[in-house]
Design goal:
The chain is of the alpha+beta class. It contains three helices and five strands, in the order αβαββαββ.
Length: 110
């Protein structure tokens, strides 16, 4: 009986830890350039105009951080066009190589 009680308590503790861990998972933040999938931050013309044209021509927004390019899940997020071709601080959730943005802002001046 005591062994069964210990196993039951251990299972309950494990379940509590797993549920708290998944609830406590906070969004991450990245600082990088909002670009388009075709150019991935390497534009032939002025970046802001290039991103606007590529998006108009059907490309998708991406976030380029150092040499890593992340897809953006919510392409209609409010300020993507505003930050296209510039550096932005993006907050959201990452799954595989795709970020679902919850917040986007300009980097703080140093």
């Amino acid at each position: 009986m005591k062994w069964t009680l210990k196993v039951g308590m251990a299972a309950a503790v494990m379940a509590a830890v797993v549920s708290v861990t998944s609830v406590a998972a906070a969004p991450a933040t990245w600082t990088g350039k909002i670009s388009d999938a075709m150019c991935a931050g390497k534009h032939q013309t002025e970046p802001k105009a290039c991103v606007a044209k590529c998006i108009k021509d059907g490309e998708k927004y991406v976030l380029v951080v150092d040499a890593k390019t992340y897809k953006i899940a919510n392409q209609k997020f409010a300020d993507l066009a505003k930050f296209g071709g510039t550096t932005a601080v993006v907050t959201g959730e990452l799954k595989d190589d795709t970020i679902t943005i919850t917040k986007i802002a300009a980097p703080k001046a140093k």
